[in-house]
Amino acid sequence: MASIKPSVPKGTRDFSPTEMVKRNFIFDTIKSVFRKYGYQQIETPTMEKMSTLTGKYGEEGDKLIFKILNNGDFLAEAGLDSSNINTDSKTLSFKIAEKALRYDLTVPFARYVVQHQNEITFPFKRFQVQPVWRADRPQKGRYREFYQCDADVVGSDSLLNEAEFVLIYDEALSKLGLKDFTIKINNRKILSGIAEIIDKADNIIDLTVAIDKLDKIGLDGVIKELMERGFTADDIEKIKPVILLEGSNTEKLASLRSALANSATGLKGCDEIEVVFNYLANCQLITANLELDITLARGLNYYTGAIFEVKTNEVAMGSIGGGGRYDDLTGMFGLKGLTGVGISFGADRIYDVMDELNLFPEAANQSTQLLICCFDKEGEKFALPILQQLRNQDINAELYPAGAKLKKQLDYANNKNIPYTIIIGSDEIESGLLTIKNMQTGVQEKVTAEQVLDTISK
Predict the structure, then answer these.
(1) Cβ-Cβ contacts under 8 Å for 201 (sequence gap 6 or more)
(2) Nearest one of 226, 221, 242, 224 to 294, comparing CA atoms
(3) 211, exposed or middle or buried, with CB in 10 Å at 0-12, 13-18, 19+?
(4) Is pLDDT above 90 for 231?
(5) Span 450-455, mean pLDDT?
(6) What confidence score (pLDDT) does residue 235 get?
(7) Contact 436, 455 (CB under 8 A)
(8) 219, 275, 440, 451: which has the fewest Cβ within 10 Å?
(9) 425 versus 240: which is more confidently predicted?
(10) Which one, of 188, 170, 190, 189, lies nearest residue 180 by Cα?
């Protein structure tokens, strides 16, 4: 039998120990900020029922859901045979796949809240760091399997939550070393208001999907797409000044209020944005630029209020975070009137940005701090209690099994970026003094087992 060349599916990756140390640095940093703001961690299953996921992400999103075939003879279980499987694929997929890989963490979270509503204290602030799957075309910064780091709060309509999410983005990304990034904010009510003033309230999704592409296809491309979706030249003339807003956030809001004077919904969106800006006026952002961007639509159907997107200005990359308010999401699962707002960090894209900018701290390349090398079984026996003593002091330490040449043991330390080694021979066993070597400088000194921690701390 021919041997199979090992590979992974397109859009997925293996992560080496070095990469995992860096990835955990990102996750741990973001989690620490979430906890600081009062968010608690939950996890939900890798797969959800198809009925839970479909219809929540818009037509485009539904196409990207990875479906899981039913167990066993899925055709027979669905009452199908070769004569009647030539039906449309959408209908067929519901019959042969009752489960799917989660597309994001927000919809499973909404399902969790409804299912556990009697155990939850509201407002409920949760964070979740887990992988999600999308049947997308893989390209730079876009994978079929990737991690999301989400934080949501449900059961509170206060716009203080939106302001705090801006602060969370600012603090977490600043701690990761990013020096130039923009947090874009918009409000779905403003977009609804724009549709309202041209009497196209029913076409809000068509409008938002098109203007969301402004930075990719330009104004002409957006106009062409809107015309194809049934908007008139008169409609486009009315909304063009709104799409091409300029000036400071305050000036943009003033222009919007003027343009949306006849739309109560649009003006409410302006009020909500202003409240968020007023909260943040009393807080000093560390690094972020905060920008009102009316073209920010994010095609997801469930946003009803604020919409967020975060972009780095240091590297050519898509958004590295986003989110918004979703007043009616839990209503889809039978729990009406529960408002929520949430954000997500795109950990994989953040990793790529940090890698390109060389932002990972040097310590992120090492896991073991000290390697004990010995020449024989006697040295090994002597080293074991010392090894335990070091580990009890929270030093990440290893003992290289006796029998290998010293050069091989030191090469192991160098290849793993282990900064310190201790070499144990007959002299060390007799005197009880250990030779500790700094692998970067080559400096060696004699210390007792108790002094090793001080040497490494220095």
Answers:
(1) 192, 195
(2) 242
(3) buried
(4) no
(5) 86
(6) 85
(7) yes
(8) 440
(9) 425
(10) 170
Instruction: For residue range 273-332, list pLDDT tens digits in order.
Output: 999 999 999 899 999 999 999 888 765 566 889 999 999 999 998 899 999 998 877 888
The CA–CA distances, whole Å, from 99 to 53, 68, 391 equal 9, 5, 45
Contact 24, 15 (CB under 8 A): no
Predicted local confidence at residue 75, as pLDDT? 62
Measure the CA angle with vertex 65, ends 63 and 66; round to 5°.
125
Tokens of 456: 């490494």
Residue type, 456: I
Single-letter code of the amino acid located at 403: G
Tokens describing residue 123: 């407002």
Alpha carbon of residue 16 to chain centroid: 20
pLDDT in tens, 153-199: 999 999 999 999 999 999 999 999 999 999 999 998 998 898 888 88
Task: Name the amino acid, one letter, at 220.
Answer: D
Question: What value does the mean pLDDT of the chain take?
Answer: 89
d(CA 169, CA 150): 11
Domains in the chain, ordered, with CATH? 17-45+103-356 (3.30.930.10), 367-457 (3.40.50.800)
Whether residue 374 has pLDDT greater than 90 = yes
Interstrand relation of 370-374 and 397-399 (parallel, antiparallel or unpaired): parallel
Q: Is the pLDDT of residue 59 over 60?
A: yes
Map tokens 């109560």 to a residue: 264
Q: Give, in order, the Cα–Cα distances in Å from 141 to each of 4, 21, 218, 254.
A: 29, 20, 22, 36
